[in-house]
Amino acid sequence: MTRIIKAFSFINLCLALVSCVISVKVNAETNAVDKRIANVDSAHSELHRAKVSLDKIVVKNEAELYAAVSQANANSRTAIVIRRGTYLLHSTLNVTGDYITIRSADNAPSSVVLKGPGMIKMPRVFNLIRVSGKYFTLSGLTAEGSPNHIIQIAGESDADFTTIKNCRLQNAREQIVKVSSNAQQNVSSDLGRIEDCVFAYTAGVGPQYYIGGIDMHGGKQWLIRNNQFFGIASPEKRVAEHAIHLWNSSANNVVTNNLIINSDRGIGFGLQGLKNEAGVIMNNMIVHADLTHPSADVGIVLEESPNTIVKNNKVVLLHSYPNAIEYRFTSTKNVKIVANQVNKKIRRRNGGHAALSENSAIENDQTFINKSAKKLPADLFEVFKARRK
How many H-runs (helices) and E-runs (strands) does the chain carry? Predict the structure, then answer.
Protein backbone atom coordinates (compact mmCIF):
# COMPACT_ATOMS: atom_id res chain seq x y z
CA MET A 1 0.00 0.00 0.00
CA THR A 2 2.82 2.37 0.92
CA ARG A 3 4.45 1.70 -2.46
CA ILE A 4 1.18 2.45 -4.26
CA ILE A 5 0.76 5.73 -2.36
CA LYS A 6 4.36 6.70 -3.20
CA ALA A 7 3.78 5.80 -6.86
CA PHE A 8 0.66 7.98 -7.01
CA SER A 9 2.54 10.81 -5.30
CA PHE A 10 5.35 10.53 -7.85
CA ILE A 11 2.85 10.56 -10.74
CA ASN A 12 1.09 13.61 -9.31
CA LEU A 13 4.44 15.35 -8.90
CA CYS A 14 5.31 14.60 -12.54
CA LEU A 15 1.93 15.89 -13.72
CA ALA A 16 2.39 19.03 -11.66
CA LEU A 17 5.83 19.59 -13.18
CA VAL A 18 4.48 19.08 -16.72
CA SER A 19 1.63 21.49 -15.98
CA CYS A 20 4.13 24.00 -14.63
CA VAL A 21 6.32 23.69 -17.74
CA ILE A 22 3.30 24.12 -20.03
CA SER A 23 2.14 27.13 -18.01
CA VAL A 24 5.58 28.75 -18.19
CA LYS A 25 5.72 28.09 -21.94
CA VAL A 26 2.24 29.55 -22.55
CA ASN A 27 3.03 32.58 -20.40
CA ALA A 28 6.31 33.11 -22.25
CA GLU A 29 4.52 32.97 -25.61
CA THR A 30 1.83 35.36 -24.38
CA ASN A 31 4.49 37.74 -23.08
CA ALA A 32 6.33 37.60 -26.41
CA VAL A 33 3.16 38.55 -28.30
CA ASP A 34 2.27 41.27 -25.82
CA LYS A 35 5.79 42.69 -26.07
CA ARG A 36 5.67 42.87 -29.88
CA ILE A 37 2.29 44.59 -29.84
CA ALA A 38 3.43 46.93 -27.06
CA ASN A 39 6.49 47.91 -29.08
CA VAL A 40 4.36 48.92 -32.07
CA ASP A 41 1.76 50.63 -29.86
CA SER A 42 4.49 52.52 -28.03
CA ALA A 43 5.99 53.78 -31.26
CA HIS A 44 2.58 55.00 -32.43
CA SER A 45 1.74 56.58 -29.07
CA GLU A 46 5.02 58.50 -29.13
CA LEU A 47 4.07 59.90 -32.52
CA HIS A 48 0.62 60.99 -31.45
CA ARG A 49 1.85 62.71 -28.31
CA ALA A 50 3.55 65.28 -30.51
CA LYS A 51 0.44 67.35 -31.18
CA VAL A 52 0.67 69.62 -34.21
CA SER A 53 -1.64 72.58 -34.70
CA LEU A 54 -3.39 72.43 -38.09
CA ASP A 55 -4.95 75.23 -40.08
CA LYS A 56 -8.49 74.35 -41.16
CA ILE A 57 -10.04 74.66 -44.60
CA VAL A 58 -13.74 73.79 -44.97
CA VAL A 59 -14.88 72.72 -48.44
CA LYS A 60 -18.32 72.14 -49.94
CA ASN A 61 -17.68 71.21 -53.60
CA GLU A 62 -15.13 69.55 -55.86
CA ALA A 63 -13.39 72.76 -56.97
CA GLU A 64 -12.86 73.81 -53.37
CA LEU A 65 -11.55 70.33 -52.50
CA TYR A 66 -8.87 70.36 -55.21
CA ALA A 67 -7.91 73.94 -54.33
CA ALA A 68 -7.66 73.02 -50.65
CA VAL A 69 -5.31 70.11 -51.41
CA SER A 70 -3.08 72.44 -53.46
CA GLN A 71 -3.03 74.99 -50.64
CA ALA A 72 -2.32 72.32 -48.05
CA ASN A 73 0.58 70.96 -50.11
CA ALA A 74 2.09 74.44 -50.25
CA ASN A 75 1.67 75.17 -46.54
CA SER A 76 1.53 71.70 -44.89
CA ARG A 77 -0.05 71.39 -41.41
CA THR A 78 -3.61 71.64 -42.75
CA ALA A 79 -6.91 69.92 -41.98
CA ILE A 80 -9.31 69.80 -44.94
CA VAL A 81 -12.84 69.39 -43.59
CA ILE A 82 -15.41 68.22 -46.14
CA ARG A 83 -19.06 69.06 -45.76
CA ARG A 84 -21.77 66.48 -46.34
CA GLY A 85 -22.25 65.34 -49.94
CA THR A 86 -20.91 63.35 -52.89
CA TYR A 87 -17.77 64.64 -54.59
CA LEU A 88 -17.01 63.47 -58.13
CA LEU A 89 -13.26 63.18 -58.63
CA HIS A 90 -11.91 63.84 -62.13
CA SER A 91 -8.25 63.38 -61.20
CA THR A 92 -6.10 62.10 -58.34
CA LEU A 93 -5.94 64.05 -55.10
CA ASN A 94 -2.15 64.25 -54.78
CA VAL A 95 -1.07 64.89 -51.19
CA THR A 96 2.59 65.94 -51.09
CA GLY A 97 2.77 68.10 -47.96
CA ASP A 98 3.34 66.93 -44.39
CA TYR A 99 0.74 66.90 -41.60
CA ILE A 100 -2.29 66.99 -43.91
CA THR A 101 -5.66 65.64 -42.79
CA ILE A 102 -8.70 65.03 -45.00
CA ARG A 103 -11.86 64.29 -43.03
CA SER A 104 -15.61 64.68 -43.13
CA ALA A 105 -17.22 67.42 -41.06
CA ASP A 106 -19.51 64.87 -39.39
CA ASN A 107 -16.83 62.18 -38.91
CA ALA A 108 -19.30 59.69 -40.43
CA PRO A 109 -18.34 57.63 -43.50
CA SER A 110 -21.87 57.86 -44.91
CA SER A 111 -21.84 61.67 -44.85
CA VAL A 112 -19.12 62.23 -47.47
CA VAL A 113 -18.44 60.15 -50.59
CA LEU A 114 -15.38 60.71 -52.76
CA LYS A 115 -16.44 59.06 -56.00
CA GLY A 116 -14.14 58.14 -58.85
CA PRO A 117 -15.09 57.16 -62.42
CA GLY A 118 -15.48 53.49 -61.49
CA MET A 119 -13.62 50.20 -61.85
CA ILE A 120 -12.77 50.87 -65.49
CA LYS A 121 -9.51 50.40 -67.33
CA MET A 122 -7.90 53.73 -68.21
CA PRO A 123 -4.79 54.62 -70.26
CA ARG A 124 -3.25 56.42 -67.27
CA VAL A 125 -2.96 55.67 -63.56
CA PHE A 126 -5.92 57.06 -61.62
CA ASN A 127 -5.83 56.53 -57.89
CA LEU A 128 -8.40 58.54 -55.99
CA ILE A 129 -5.78 59.66 -53.46
CA ARG A 130 -1.98 59.45 -53.65
CA VAL A 131 0.09 60.33 -50.59
CA SER A 132 3.81 61.12 -50.61
CA GLY A 133 3.92 63.37 -47.53
CA LYS A 134 4.39 62.34 -43.91
CA TYR A 135 1.73 62.33 -41.17
CA PHE A 136 -1.25 62.11 -43.53
CA THR A 137 -4.65 61.29 -42.01
CA LEU A 138 -7.84 60.22 -43.79
CA SER A 139 -10.88 59.95 -41.55
CA GLY A 140 -14.64 59.59 -41.49
CA LEU A 141 -15.56 59.28 -45.17
CA THR A 142 -16.29 56.88 -48.04
CA ALA A 143 -14.05 56.65 -51.12
CA GLU A 144 -15.12 54.44 -54.00
CA GLY A 145 -14.88 53.62 -57.68
CA SER A 146 -11.22 53.76 -58.72
CA PRO A 147 -9.61 52.60 -61.99
CA ASN A 148 -6.54 51.70 -59.92
CA HIS A 149 -6.27 52.09 -56.13
CA ILE A 150 -8.51 54.02 -53.77
CA ILE A 151 -5.37 55.16 -51.91
CA GLN A 152 -1.70 54.78 -52.75
CA ILE A 153 0.83 55.50 -50.00
CA ALA A 154 4.17 56.18 -51.71
CA GLY A 155 6.77 54.41 -49.61
CA GLU A 156 9.32 55.28 -52.29
CA SER A 157 8.85 58.90 -51.13
CA ASP A 158 9.28 57.86 -47.47
CA ALA A 159 5.62 58.60 -46.72
CA ASP A 160 5.71 57.61 -43.05
CA PHE A 161 3.14 57.92 -40.26
CA THR A 162 -0.04 57.54 -42.35
CA THR A 163 -3.33 57.12 -40.49
CA ILE A 164 -6.50 55.82 -42.17
CA LYS A 165 -9.40 55.45 -39.75
CA ASN A 166 -13.18 55.18 -39.71
CA CYS A 167 -13.45 55.07 -43.50
CA ARG A 168 -15.29 52.94 -46.02
CA LEU A 169 -13.08 52.13 -49.00
CA GLN A 170 -14.61 50.11 -51.81
CA ASN A 171 -14.73 49.07 -55.45
CA ALA A 172 -11.24 49.53 -56.88
CA ARG A 173 -10.10 47.89 -60.10
CA GLU A 174 -6.85 46.95 -58.35
CA GLN A 175 -5.87 46.75 -54.66
CA ILE A 176 -7.94 49.08 -52.50
CA VAL A 177 -5.00 50.42 -50.46
CA LYS A 178 -1.54 50.12 -51.97
CA VAL A 179 1.58 50.88 -49.96
CA SER A 180 4.33 50.99 -52.56
CA SER A 181 8.12 51.09 -52.24
CA ASN A 182 11.23 51.56 -54.35
CA ALA A 183 13.04 48.71 -56.05
CA GLN A 184 16.04 48.85 -53.71
CA GLN A 185 13.86 48.61 -50.57
CA ASN A 186 16.08 51.17 -48.83
CA VAL A 187 13.16 53.49 -48.16
CA SER A 188 9.59 52.58 -47.22
CA SER A 189 6.39 53.77 -45.61
CA ASP A 190 6.63 52.99 -41.92
CA LEU A 191 4.66 53.41 -38.69
CA GLY A 192 1.28 53.67 -40.39
CA ARG A 193 -2.06 52.86 -38.86
CA ILE A 194 -5.26 51.53 -40.46
CA GLU A 195 -8.15 51.17 -38.02
CA ASP A 196 -11.93 50.83 -37.92
CA CYS A 197 -12.34 50.81 -41.71
CA VAL A 198 -14.44 48.76 -44.13
CA PHE A 199 -12.82 47.40 -47.30
CA ALA A 200 -15.34 45.98 -49.74
CA TYR A 201 -16.45 44.96 -53.18
CA THR A 202 -20.12 45.74 -52.89
CA ALA A 203 -21.15 43.06 -55.41
CA GLY A 204 -19.51 40.44 -53.17
CA VAL A 205 -16.80 39.79 -55.76
CA GLY A 206 -14.19 41.91 -57.54
CA PRO A 207 -13.95 42.94 -61.21
CA GLN A 208 -10.84 40.83 -61.93
CA TYR A 209 -8.22 38.71 -60.13
CA TYR A 210 -5.67 41.53 -59.64
CA ILE A 211 -7.31 43.02 -56.57
CA GLY A 212 -6.70 43.06 -52.84
CA GLY A 213 -7.59 44.85 -49.65
CA ILE A 214 -4.32 46.17 -48.21
CA ASP A 215 -1.25 45.44 -50.36
CA MET A 216 1.87 46.61 -48.53
CA HIS A 217 5.41 46.51 -49.90
CA GLY A 218 8.21 47.08 -47.43
CA GLY A 219 6.16 48.70 -44.66
CA LYS A 220 7.47 48.42 -41.11
CA GLN A 221 5.75 48.73 -37.74
CA TRP A 222 2.26 49.27 -39.14
CA LEU A 223 -0.77 48.64 -36.97
CA ILE A 224 -3.76 47.17 -38.85
CA ARG A 225 -6.66 46.51 -36.50
CA ASN A 226 -10.43 46.48 -36.09
CA ASN A 227 -11.13 46.54 -39.84
CA GLN A 228 -13.66 44.62 -41.93
CA PHE A 229 -13.03 43.10 -45.36
CA PHE A 230 -15.74 41.77 -47.67
CA GLY A 231 -15.71 40.20 -51.12
CA ILE A 232 -11.99 40.54 -51.91
CA ALA A 233 -12.48 37.71 -54.39
CA SER A 234 -11.65 36.98 -58.00
CA PRO A 235 -14.39 36.24 -60.56
CA GLU A 236 -11.83 34.17 -62.51
CA LYS A 237 -10.02 30.88 -61.99
CA ARG A 238 -7.03 32.87 -60.79
CA VAL A 239 -6.81 33.77 -57.14
CA ALA A 240 -7.09 37.35 -55.86
CA GLU A 241 -4.48 38.86 -53.59
CA HIS A 242 -5.14 38.69 -49.87
CA ALA A 243 -7.46 40.91 -47.88
CA ILE A 244 -4.25 41.89 -46.04
CA HIS A 245 -0.88 41.19 -47.66
CA LEU A 246 2.39 42.46 -46.15
CA TRP A 247 5.49 41.48 -48.12
CA ASN A 248 8.57 42.51 -50.09
CA SER A 249 10.77 43.48 -47.08
CA SER A 250 7.90 44.34 -44.73
CA ALA A 251 8.71 43.82 -41.05
CA ASN A 252 7.41 43.98 -37.48
CA ASN A 253 3.78 44.74 -38.30
CA VAL A 254 0.75 43.90 -36.16
CA VAL A 255 -2.51 42.66 -37.74
CA THR A 256 -5.17 42.16 -35.08
CA ASN A 257 -8.93 42.05 -34.48
CA ASN A 258 -9.88 42.19 -38.15
CA LEU A 259 -12.96 40.51 -39.67
CA ILE A 260 -12.48 39.01 -43.14
CA ILE A 261 -15.57 37.68 -44.92
CA ASN A 262 -15.72 35.89 -48.28
CA SER A 263 -12.25 36.85 -49.52
CA ASP A 264 -10.13 34.44 -51.60
CA ARG A 265 -7.22 34.69 -49.18
CA GLY A 266 -7.34 36.23 -45.73
CA ILE A 267 -3.97 37.35 -44.35
CA GLY A 268 -0.59 36.81 -45.97
CA PHE A 269 2.89 37.68 -44.70
CA GLY A 270 5.63 37.40 -47.32
CA LEU A 271 5.87 35.75 -50.74
CA GLN A 272 8.43 33.42 -52.26
CA GLY A 273 11.54 35.52 -52.88
CA LEU A 274 9.92 38.62 -51.33
CA LYS A 275 10.01 37.97 -47.62
CA ASN A 276 8.42 39.45 -44.54
CA GLU A 277 10.23 39.61 -41.20
CA ALA A 278 8.52 38.93 -37.86
CA GLY A 279 5.18 40.54 -36.94
CA VAL A 280 2.00 39.31 -35.27
CA ILE A 281 -1.28 37.96 -36.72
CA MET A 282 -3.66 37.75 -33.77
CA ASN A 283 -7.36 37.68 -32.83
CA ASN A 284 -8.63 37.85 -36.42
CA MET A 285 -11.81 36.15 -37.67
CA ILE A 286 -11.76 34.76 -41.20
CA VAL A 287 -14.90 33.28 -42.75
CA HIS A 288 -15.54 32.11 -46.30
CA ALA A 289 -19.05 30.92 -47.14
CA ASP A 290 -19.56 32.03 -50.78
CA LEU A 291 -19.35 28.86 -52.86
CA THR A 292 -19.69 30.81 -56.12
CA HIS A 293 -16.13 32.14 -55.82
CA PRO A 294 -14.01 30.03 -58.22
CA SER A 295 -10.60 30.62 -56.59
CA ALA A 296 -11.13 30.60 -52.82
CA ASP A 297 -7.94 29.68 -51.00
CA VAL A 298 -6.19 29.72 -47.62
CA GLY A 299 -7.17 31.74 -44.54
CA ILE A 300 -3.69 32.68 -43.25
CA VAL A 301 -0.38 32.04 -45.00
CA LEU A 302 3.26 32.70 -44.13
CA GLU A 303 5.59 32.61 -47.15
CA GLU A 304 9.22 33.37 -46.32
CA SER A 305 8.12 34.99 -43.06
CA PRO A 306 10.48 34.07 -40.20
CA ASN A 307 10.02 35.01 -36.52
CA THR A 308 6.27 35.50 -36.91
CA ILE A 309 3.52 34.77 -34.37
CA VAL A 310 0.07 33.54 -35.47
CA LYS A 311 -2.14 33.38 -32.41
CA ASN A 312 -5.78 33.08 -31.38
CA ASN A 313 -7.30 33.46 -34.84
CA LYS A 314 -10.52 31.75 -35.92
CA VAL A 315 -10.75 30.44 -39.48
CA VAL A 316 -13.88 28.81 -40.93
CA LEU A 317 -13.80 28.05 -44.67
CA LEU A 318 -16.67 26.23 -46.39
CA HIS A 319 -15.01 25.89 -49.81
CA SER A 320 -12.93 22.93 -50.98
CA TYR A 321 -9.42 24.26 -50.35
CA PRO A 322 -7.98 21.92 -47.69
CA ASN A 323 -5.93 24.29 -45.51
CA ALA A 324 -6.85 27.03 -43.05
CA ILE A 325 -3.29 28.09 -42.18
CA GLU A 326 -0.07 27.43 -44.10
CA TYR A 327 3.60 28.07 -43.37
CA ARG A 328 5.78 27.80 -46.45
CA PHE A 329 9.43 27.72 -47.58
CA THR A 330 12.60 27.00 -45.63
CA SER A 331 13.22 30.62 -44.60
CA THR A 332 9.96 30.50 -42.63
CA LYS A 333 11.37 29.50 -39.24
CA ASN A 334 11.19 30.50 -35.57
CA VAL A 335 7.45 30.78 -36.12
CA LYS A 336 4.82 30.14 -33.46
CA ILE A 337 1.28 29.10 -34.43
CA VAL A 338 -0.66 29.06 -31.18
CA ALA A 339 -4.27 28.68 -29.96
CA ASN A 340 -5.96 29.08 -33.33
CA GLN A 341 -9.38 27.55 -34.02
CA VAL A 342 -9.76 26.17 -37.53
CA ASN A 343 -12.06 23.88 -39.50
CA LYS A 344 -9.31 22.81 -41.93
CA LYS A 345 -5.65 21.82 -41.71
CA ILE A 346 -2.71 23.81 -40.40
CA ARG A 347 -0.13 22.67 -42.92
CA ARG A 348 3.60 22.84 -43.49
CA ARG A 349 4.52 23.34 -47.16
CA ASN A 350 7.78 23.67 -49.10
CA GLY A 351 9.95 23.04 -46.05
CA GLY A 352 8.54 25.68 -43.72
CA HIS A 353 9.17 25.44 -39.97
CA ALA A 354 6.84 26.37 -37.10
CA ALA A 355 6.10 25.38 -33.51
CA LEU A 356 2.42 24.47 -33.19
CA SER A 357 0.60 24.40 -29.85
CA GLU A 358 -2.93 24.60 -28.44
CA ASN A 359 -4.59 24.82 -31.86
CA SER A 360 -8.01 23.18 -32.08
CA ALA A 361 -10.44 21.91 -34.68
CA ILE A 362 -13.94 23.38 -34.94
CA GLU A 363 -16.99 22.46 -36.95
CA ASN A 364 -18.55 24.37 -39.83
CA ASP A 365 -20.55 26.47 -37.40
CA GLN A 366 -23.37 28.20 -39.31
CA THR A 367 -24.32 30.25 -36.27
CA PHE A 368 -20.77 31.59 -36.01
CA ILE A 369 -20.70 32.30 -39.76
CA ASN A 370 -23.95 34.27 -39.71
CA LYS A 371 -23.05 36.05 -36.48
CA SER A 372 -19.72 37.13 -37.98
CA ALA A 373 -21.34 38.35 -41.20
CA LYS A 374 -23.91 40.38 -39.26
CA LYS A 375 -21.06 42.58 -38.04
CA LEU A 376 -20.74 43.92 -41.59
CA PRO A 377 -22.60 47.10 -42.63
CA ALA A 378 -26.25 46.27 -43.33
CA ASP A 379 -25.99 46.55 -47.13
CA LEU A 380 -23.02 44.19 -47.25
CA PHE A 381 -24.77 41.69 -45.00
CA GLU A 382 -27.67 41.66 -47.48
CA VAL A 383 -25.20 40.89 -50.28
CA PHE A 384 -23.67 38.15 -48.13
CA LYS A 385 -27.09 36.53 -47.65
CA ALA A 386 -28.12 36.88 -51.29
CA ARG A 387 -24.96 35.20 -52.57
CA ARG A 388 -25.55 32.16 -50.32
CA LYS A 389 -28.99 31.39 -51.74
Answer: 4, 35
- Number of structural domains found in the chain: 1
Is 11 exposed, middle or buried (CB count within 10 Å of its CB: 0-12, 13-18, 19+)? Answer: exposed
| C-alpha span between 29 and 311 (Å, rounded) | 10
329 is a domain residue: yes
Is the residue at 19 inside a domain? no
Instruction: Note the pTM of the prediction, 2 decimals.
Output: 0.91
The answer to whether 303 and 279 have CB atoms below 8 angstroms apart is no
> Is residue 33 one of the residues assigned to a domain?
no
Which residue segment(s) compose the domain that 388 sits in?
201-389
CA distance 109 to 198: 10
Q: Kindly write down the DSSP assignment for every residue of 93-124, as one continuous string.
A: EEE-SSSEEEEESS--GGGEEEE-S-S---SS
Q: How many Å apart are CA 39 and CA 182, to the nearest integer?
A: 26
Find the angle CA(272)-CA(274)-CA(276) to the nearest 5 degrees.
105
Closest CA to 284 of 225, 211, 358, 338: 225
Q: Tell me: the pLDDT tens digits for 296-306?
A: 999 999 999 99
The model's pLDDT over 282-330, given as tens digits with 9 standing for 90+, comes to 999 999 999 999 999 999 999 999 999 999 999 999 999 999 999 999 9
Q: Is 32 domain-assigned?
A: no
Which residue type, as a one-letter code, is found at position 78? Answer: T
Query: Count of CB atoms within 10 A of residue 91's CB?
Result: 11
Q: Which is nearest to 223 in space by CA: 281, 167, 271, 175?
A: 281
Angstrom CA distances, 263 to 199, 205, 258, 358, stand at: 11, 8, 13, 26
